[in-house]
């Protein structure tokens, strides 16, 4: 074990001198010192602090995932750009992981973890900053009485040209980057990745060094189980914030004409990062007061003193060689890296974990957006479903994995088989996702013709005979739902010639493209927003949630054995 390497020189010298005292003088003092160590600075205290840190870091990550589509709309960026922005977290982690894992173990590990928490806090605050200097969010709408609207044009202007407002000249379906403020989010995410780096390698190694070997899997299971409460809290908070308008507290909400179910809605994504920053800041404070090393659980005092005496001698013999210590440590680092990557078993495990975590991160990132696009659910509901289905299953799986390994004393070979079988089972269950999807939305002129017939993408024109004389703007997405259950690109493309009501209660009347029932008569009405999905799609969404829960459970059940393989 590395107790000798982690010992404090001054503490070892004091302990050596104290050994010469009489037992009468030593007894009460030693008892008091042990009581303080076990209560305030013991392994359980470190485990509790590390568990809250895990909660904080994954809470921040969950806020990023739950705000993915919100930031896409707010910054006017594509999904690929948003994916690059989200991937900066892994980039920051990759930049320093090798150096932190190797050199961090040679320093005061709890304080290195504290520094990482403070960096994560800074990154979270930086991520929220664009909201405060971007100005108010503006969206397009043809409804009346909206101070937030960028265009207030009548729906169908027969034989007239559509007047352009300054807001319409750069808006529409062909998105352009309206702001480069997303770079602040990228930099904040990069800082979060750098700050998160020391938590897992140094925290797990600290636990492994000072706990009983048979207790380590259980500790890790408890750690990750408590840590998984973070994503649950993050997605639940993300669900709540997705229902709040992005400029809440800055604008009159009565003037907002869109609802959370509208594809243009942007929630208060920035609030979550401010809360995450506070959590990260608080989580780093306890590590500033934890010791560099602890007593090994189950180690007797004579063995401990023998190890510390050896550590003292090894430290005393090295002062003359401190000049070349930096260069020798750097040389040792590359030698150790070469030796580690040369281990075929470790290299295969590394490749396996790379593929596994890459797919997991991609799935977790785009899962809320997939639910929104595939099943027509609002961002708030997609975040809520993720929080109450998959994450509790993951918590249960991780906890049971650690409990099973401790109860049956599973070794490395058996843990490898267990991780493989459970991962393969989770993969097989995930294949059922392919049969529970939904059909494309019925959008007139895009996915179906104006008669409701399915056509190939791009095979039908956006205009039809019913709206040909309306001179509709082709770069505008202001969807309305007609009485026929079909979504139209805008009230103009629905052929609507009259408007009643205002704001969220706006109703478009006399729409020449909307057929009323089976009568064949047209000139029906439409309301703001897209039409809801069919009942069969709603049922498939329930099946999707069940499959996701079961697959997540088996995936997490093999997570603890996989971690034990990594650290052993």
From TrEMBL:
Q: Which UniProt keywords apply?
A: Cell membrane, Disulfide bond, Ion transport, Membrane, Transmembrane, Transmembrane helix, Transport
The answer, when asked if Oxidoreductase is one of the entry's keywords, is: no
The transmembrane segments are 45-64, 84-105, 112-133, 216-246, 266-290, 345-364, 384-405, 417-436, 541-565
Q: Which SUPFAM superfamilies match?
A: Kazal-type serine protease inhibitors, MFS general substrate transporter
- According to the UniProt record, where is the region Disordered? 300-323
Has the keyword DNA-binding been applied to this entry? no
Protein name as it appears in the record: Solute carrier organic anion transporter family member
Question: Which organism was this protein described from?
Answer: Podarcis lilfordi
């Amino acid at each position: 074990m590395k107790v000798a390497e982690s010992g404090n020189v001054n503490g070892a010298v004091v302990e050596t001198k104290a050994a010469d005292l009489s037992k009468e003088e030593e007894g009460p003092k030693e008892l008091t010192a042990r009581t303080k160590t076990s209560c305030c600075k013991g392994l359980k205290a470190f485990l509790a602090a590390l568990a809250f840190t895990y909660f904080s870091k994954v809470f921040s990550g969950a806020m990023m995932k739950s705000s993915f589509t919100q930031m896409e709309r707010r910054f006017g960026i594509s999904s690929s750009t948003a994916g690059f922005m989200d991937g900066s977290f892994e980039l920051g982690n990759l930049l320093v992981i090798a150096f932190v894992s190797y050199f961090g173990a040679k320093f005061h590990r709890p304080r290195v973890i504290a520094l990482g928490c403070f960096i994560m806090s800074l990154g979270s605050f930086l991520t929220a900053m664009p909201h405060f200097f971007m100005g108010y969010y503006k969206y397009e709408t043809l409804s009346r009485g909206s101070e937030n609207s960028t265009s207030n044009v009548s729906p169908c202007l027969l034989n007239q040209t559509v007047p352009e407002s300054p807001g319409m000249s750069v808006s529409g379906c062909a998105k352009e980057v309206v702001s480069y403020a997303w770079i602040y989010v990228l930099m904040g995410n990069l800082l979060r990745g750098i700050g998160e780096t020391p938590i897992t390698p140094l925290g797990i190694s600290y636990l492994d060094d000072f706990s009983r070997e048979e207790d380590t899997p259980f500790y890790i299971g408890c750690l990750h189980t408590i840590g998984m409460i973070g994503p649950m809290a993050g997605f639940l908070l993300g669900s709540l914030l997705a229902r709040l308008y992005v400029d809440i507290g800055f604008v009159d909400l009565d003037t907002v004409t869109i609802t959370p179910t509208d594809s243009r809605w942007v929630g208060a994504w920035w609030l979550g990062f401010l809360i995450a920053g506070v959590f990260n800041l608080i989580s780093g404070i306890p590590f500033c007061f934890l010791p560099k090393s602890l007593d090994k659980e189950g180690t007797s005092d004579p063995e401990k003193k023998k190890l510390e005496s050896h550590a003292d001698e090894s430290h005393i013999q090295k002062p003359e060689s401190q000049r070349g210590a930096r260069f020798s440590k750097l040389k040792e680092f590359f030698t150790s890296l070469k030796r580690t990557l040369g281990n075929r078993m470790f290299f295969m495990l590394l490749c396996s974990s790379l593929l596994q975590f890459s797919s997991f991160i991609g799935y977790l990132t785009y899962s809320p957006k997939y639910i929104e696009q595939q099943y027509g659910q609002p961002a708030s509901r997609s975040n809520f479903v993720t929080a109450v289905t998959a994450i509790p299953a993951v918590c249960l799986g991780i906890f049971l994995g650690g409990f099973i390994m401790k109860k049956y004393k599973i070794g490395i070979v058996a843990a490898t088989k267990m991780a493989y079988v459970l991962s393969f089972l989770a993969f097989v269950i995930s294949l059922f996702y392919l049969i529970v999807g939904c059909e494309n939305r019925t959008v007139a002129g895009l996915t179906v013709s104006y008669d409701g017939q399915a056509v190939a993408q791009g095979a039908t024109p956006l205009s039809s005979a019913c709206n040909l004389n309306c001179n509709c703007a082709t770069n505008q997405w202001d969807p309305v739902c007609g009485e026929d259950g079909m979504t139209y690109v805008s009230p103009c493309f629905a052929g609507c010639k009259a408007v009643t009501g205002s704001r969220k209660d706006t109703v478009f009347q006399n729409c020449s493209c909307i057929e009323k029932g089976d009568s064949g008569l047209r000139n029906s009405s439409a309301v703001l927003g897209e039409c809801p999905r069919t009942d069969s799609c709603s049922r498939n969404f329930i099946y999707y949630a069940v499959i996701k829960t079961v697959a997540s459970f088996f995936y997490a059940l093999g997570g603890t054995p996989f971690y034990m393989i990594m650290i052993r």
